[in-house]
Specification:
Blueprint: E1 16-23, H1 30-37, E2 53-59, E3 63-70, E4 89-95, H2 102-113, H3 116-119, E5 125-130, H4 140-147, E6 157-161, H5 170-183, E7 190-191, E8 199-201, E9 206-208
Parallel strand pairs: 1-3, 1-4, 4-5, 5-6
Antiparallel strand pairs: 1-7, 2-3, 8-9
């Protein structure tokens, strides 16, 4: 089963929608992480760069969990802000081996945090210091320092080491995120809306659209 299977009991019996933005620079591993969240029989065998954005929907008996996988390429980052207002949580992925672009990642994070649709929201933020398997990778502590995460005072945040290819570290992050979304009284969750095109995953009893 996929790692999102455990999310099914979050919000009671009525279906509610949780919108999560997955952000970060290109080649940080965002799409690979989302692919790992799927049940094994629906995972893509080859990951290609995201053009614009992708949407993944995971549905259980009580939850519609929508992940917006936003392209991190420079020409597409201006699309991010169009999805801030309806978001309930943010996953921000950083390539921990890419020291040269850590400054760019921080600039994009600062722009995100200062946006009017994010600045006053206490939505939880999960950071993945990804590609920890690479020789030149930095620890999550060092990534946290370079991004100045300690300056985030008005939002719950958490950072995890991760290896998206093997799925390592993802469970820890999801455990934290589900607890924060469940306990965050300032985030209003919506009821299930449009279904879109869906495909039934009988193994895990999720329906997901993409």
């Amino acid at each position: 089963m996929g790692l999102l299977d455990k999310l099914s009991g979050w919000l009671g019996l009525r279906k509610k929608e949780v919108n999560v933005l997955c952000l970060g620079l290109d080649n940080s591993g965002k799409t690979t992480i989302i692919n790992q969240l799927k049940p094994s029989n629906t995972q893509e065998q080859e990951i290609v760069p995201t053009i614009g954005f992708n949407i993944e929907k995971f549905k259980s008996s009580s939850l519609l969990f929508t992940v917006f996988d936003m392209s991190g390429q420079n020409r597409y980052r201006n699309l991010w802000e169009h999805y801030y207002k309806e978001s309930h949580a943010i996953i921000f992925v950083v390539d921990s081996s890419d020291k040269l672009r850590m400054v760019v990642a921080k600039e994009e994070l600062d722009t995100l945090l200062n946006h009017e649709d994010i600045r006053c929201k206490k939505l939880p933020m999960l950071f993945f210091a990804n590609k920890m398997d690479l020789q030149d990778s930095m620890s999550s502590i060092r990534v946290s320092q370079m991004l100045c995460l300690e300056n985030i005072k008005d939002k719950p945040w958490h950072i995890c080491d991760s290896n998206a290819i093997k799925g390592e570290g993802l469970q820890e992050g999801l455990d934290w995120l589900q607890g924060e979304v469940f306990n965050n009284k300032t985030v209003t969750l919506g009821y299930k809306g449009r279904e879109g095109q869906v495909k039934l995953c009988s193994e895990c009893q999720f329906t997901h659209a993409y």
